[in-house]
Amino acid sequence: MAATTDETIDGTLLDWLRDAHAMEKHAESMLQTTASRLEHYPELRNQIERHIEQTRHQAERLRGCIERQGDGTSGFKDTTARLLGMGQALTGLFASDEVVKAAAASYAFEQMEIAAYKVLITAAEQAGDPTTKEVCQEILAEEQAMAQWLDENLPGVTRTFLARAARDATAKH
Question: pTM for the full model?
Answer without folding.
Answer: 0.83
